[in-house]
Amino acid sequence: MAGARAAAIALFGGLLIISLAFKARGLGMAYWIDEGLSVGIGSHHFTDIPGVLRLDGSPPLYYMLLHVWMGWFGTSEFATQSLSAVFGLLCVPAAFWAGSVMMGRRVAWAAAALAAFNPFLTIHSYEARMYALLVLLGLLTATAFVLAYVQHRKRWRPVFGVLLVSMLYTHNWSLFFGAACVVAFAWLARNTPREERRAFLRDGAIGFGVTALLFLPWLPTLAFQARHTGAPWSTRPMFDELIFGTGTTIGGRGESVALALCAGVVLSAWAAAQRKRELRTAQSLLVIFAGTVLIAFVASQLSPAWASRYLAVALGPLILFAAIVLPNAGRMGMWALAIFIALSAIPNSVHLTDPSDEKAVAIGLHGYMRPGDLVISTHPERVPIMRHYLGGELRYADLFGPVKDPQVMDWRDALTRVKTVRVATQLQPLLTSVPLHGRVMLVRPIVDDKSNSWKAPWTKRIWRQSRHWSHTLNADRRFRPVASAPNPYAGLKFGIRAVVYERVRR
């Protein structure tokens, strides 16, 4: 008995070490745009963060946690990204606990292994963003739902409510997760005996009521954000993104097909054997996962807001569903689980896409800028990351003019405002403000003409304005170029191009 316990502890410790090794591999990498936003928002006073987010469009929990974390460890890449690594690592014991309380030790080990090796979680565990936290909360919330409404453990009703509202305060796509939970609850209620249904509905009112009560203070801000912010940089997702894009969360297309086959075998067998508790547990997790994705997909058809990283909100219940199905699908399931882990253990690129080069550009050109000089970013959401790397002694501006708070992007009615941008009314006043022998750095995105990411309403206009502003400044005889980076840049398809100009004429 003692030997078995020691072996289990050693095995679990091994999973944690492997998981940490995967996640530590990407720590300290240069920020990408959204990480600059995270650090900028988190740098505000703790109590100011909710108000600042009226401009950004996000909920506050992650940024407030990051603020505290940065107070302890600083704002370096390694320091801020390590918070996500902690959340990602905590997913392993959380998954083990979830599998154990729902279905026993065999499922617990499968869940822990899937969480330890999952490449989607790994990638988002070394970004200074909220997605690893979202996966962790998704694991816990889905488990609390099962304990409260499948296993009827009454003390988990308010716990579910608190965990769900924590997700809502972390990312707006949690609204889709919450809606899917409502669907799963309604389905369970429909399959509850009539004489027990009233008590079951009362239990649901307690759990969801806690969520509603605790989320109530944020509703005015959410309503404001819904009217004035959004994702104009996004396009409507195609159907293949729903199928194949979602599959990346569990590892890829092959893993998705294998999981679907095993799920069909297991759920059919449990239905035939009338193993209602196991069947209801797996079905509830599947409804929460699939419901979240489908509702998000439909919502993004109405108002585009689709990004593969947002699917982190649905990964928790998917990991738990896979952990239940695979070990119970006989040899086929165990082979599938082994293949899952083997494929996930193959080292991949550190990032899903190549990181941008704001840090390298800032290092290369910082020496050409002096306190009070002007930095203009024609890609407005890049102002916070440039401010982080260039420092607070410079002035910052974007297409809309001087930026009062360069640590946050003001998304309020951004698409409407960008349509009114003109050189005469926005760029020329900025150039006039540069004194003789003062300097201005123009930062613009490098755009691949074939990239779908620049075909959204927002990015298409940013691209056009960037070219126009660059041509205008190059033709302005009051300014001469002093330095540029990257140099050369011909052939680059991603990143930024920055040129420092000095004013030599009045």
Task: Describe, in short, the structure shown.
The protein has helices at residues 2-24, 33-42, 49-56, 61-73, 77-103, 105-117, 119-124, 131-149, 156-168, 174-190, 194-215, 219-228, 239-247, 253-273, 276-302, 312-325, 330-345, 358-365, 383-390, 414-418, 423-432, 457-475; strands at 374-377, 395-398, 401-402, 439-445, 479-485, 496-503.
Structural commentary:
- The structure is a single chain.
- The chain is an alpha/beta fold and 506 residues long.
- It contains 22 helices and six strands.
- It has helices at residues 2-24, 33-42, 49-56, 61-73, 77-103, 105-117, 119-124, 131-149, 156-168, 174-190, 194-215, 219-228, 239-247, 253-273, 276-302, 312-325, 330-345, 358-365, 383-390, 414-418, 423-432, 457-475; strands at 374-377, 395-398, 401-402, 439-445, 479-485, 496-503.
- Strands 3-2-1-4-6-5 form a six-stranded mixed beta sheet, sandwiched between helices.
- β1 (374-377), α19 and β2 form a beta-alpha-beta unit.
- α6 crosses α16 and α15 packs antiparallel against α16 (312-325).
- The longest helix is centred in the N-terminal third of the chain and has 27 residues, at 77-103.
- The radius of gyration is 25 Å and the shape is elongated.
- The mean pLDDT is 91.
